[in-house]
Amino acid sequence: MTCDSNVKWPLSGEVKRNRKVTDNHYHLVLHAGKEYLSSSPGQFLMIRPGGRDVSLLGRPMSIYAVNKDGDGACVEVLYRVAGRGTGLMAQLKEGEMVGVVGPLGKGFTLYRDKKRVVLVAGGVGVAPLTFLAKAYRNLPETGSVEVVSYIGARSGTCIVGKGELGSIGRVSVSSDDGTCGHHGLVTDLFAKDLGVFEEDETAVYACGPSPMLKKMQEIMRDRSFIVQASLEERMACGIGACLGCVVRVKRGGYARVCTEGPVFNLKEVCFD
Amino acid sequence: MKKPDLSVNLAGISLRNPIMTASGTFGYGEEFAGYMDLEKIGAIVTKGLSLRPRAGNPMPRIVETAGGMLNAIGLQNVGIDAFIENKTPFFRSISTPVIVNFFGNSVEEYAKLAARLDAVPEVSGVEINISCPNVKHGGIVFGTDPKAAFSVVRAVRGATGKPVIAKLSPNVTDIVEMALACAEAGADSLSLINTITGMAIDLQKRRPRISNVTGGLSGPAVKPVALRMVWQVYQAVKLPIIGIGGIVTATDALEFMVAGATAVQVGTANFMTPDASQRIAEDMERYLKENGVRDVKEMIGSLRV
Lengths: 272, 305
What we know:
The complex is a heterodimer of chains A (272) and B (305). Chain A is built from 5 helices and 16 strands. Chain A has helices at residues 84-90, 126-138, 162-166, 186-193, 210-220; strands at residues 12-20, 25-32, 44-48, 59-62, 65-69, 72-80, 97-104, 116-122, 146-153, 170-175, 182-183, 202-207, 226-230, 246-248, 254-256, 263-265. In chain A, the strands form 3 sheets. Chain A has a 7-stranded antiparallel β-sheet with strand order 4-3-7-1-2-6-5. A 7-stranded mixed β-sheet of chain A has the order 11-10-9-8-12-13-16, with helices on both faces. Chain B has a single domain, classed as TIM Barrel. Chain B has 8 helices and 18 strands. In chain B, strands 3-18-17-12-11-8-7-4 form an 8-stranded parallel β-sheet. Chain B has a 4-stranded antiparallel β-sheet with strand order 5-6-16-13, with no helix packed on it. A two-stranded antiparallel ribbon of chain B has the order 1-2. In chain B, helix 2 (107-118) links the parallel strand 7 (98-102) and strand 8 (125-129).
């Protein structure tokens, strides 16, 4: 006989819902501990489906929403099925347990003195930015802050989160194949509007794959806007130990995306 | 039945149980304090330390592979000065022994580090990473040449009174030859195995999946190799052995002890679930209780062949 317990992990969550929302995106809702109620926009979780005996590292996922749920929290993420880990996640059924570690990392800074917030999202990068938009809406003193969003995806069928951000402010959409909105990159769409935003009254936030963030950095190079970006990176541990998720920073050396990030001042990051 | 005795003595270091954490997978211990009880494991082995800070390799540094992962972090670490100043205060807040893994690029560097660590009271022992290139001698890896390994261990032995563990590389033809060389040089204990050199390729891009092209394979995929090497070394060398390689469950850990290990190190599993080492220690106690084993030391080398 073997000696391995089948007790539920203390670091676990229960699947409440796992729904396909586009051709390749899923919306996962977990019931987890009350510690998640303190999550801030931009923070993430490590989610690990498959149980202890399956060799699999956790997958970092930005938090999409958090709400009170009984004596714990209801935590939501959006994910794209891209490989083995997210493939296993897509098979999760209601009531199943998954490993969850979080909330992790440093989130976005909310600027209470800005008149306008601009969000630029690529793919599932829309998830933390939606959480952020709602946080701005919930600040009592910023009821009048304008939220402007740009959402890009490969194709019109992959656009996620448009409805939700649309209920908060103006949304412009782009697709690489032209099947929805602007035909081209979301960063180009954003750049065309850049002239109308006052630099000292606007905070810009971006989340998406590295090539998109690199483009954002180029666009914003000679501007004085505050630009915060949430970086996507593969991770092994998510808690600062493995040093597998680093990014080169302008002040020299590397910073850990999981611990010093995932949100960075975009101007401080080197994309090579 | 009474609580089984899980304590082991590792070259003079008393461990409350045989579960240690593997260097490079547990940071400096403090990273895991929020996810587990550090008082529930036998010892902590910290991230490999060098004389000067090291930035490490470019990205990508890690990739998941079948049954494990490849890494080429490039020995990124804070360097000994920052380690002593910023990391050791935390060690005073826990009673679990801390063993410091370190490496150098010359015999002199190894000796210098050992001497510095000898003066740090929070350090219970040192683990020598000999899987590093000898810069002064054409970059040949210390851990693949018995003579070079001997000279490193001998120099460290002469520089510290603390227990010395030599961590063996599996990337050799004959692990026993390496173990004998380290034993003869005065090591108090041997830990094995370090990662196995491997590679992963992205077919579409025809590019390596990590920037260093090759990296160290760890995780359950390496366990059979590690078990075999522990068994071989156990038969040839009298020193206490620390078994390492793909330990995810208490079953894995106890298999290493049956093969001859006095203690084990949990590595990649710490990444999968941050409380892995504590869970393994708890599950091990349960196994011993359920199987009427009063003392975990009865397991060591109990393989029936």
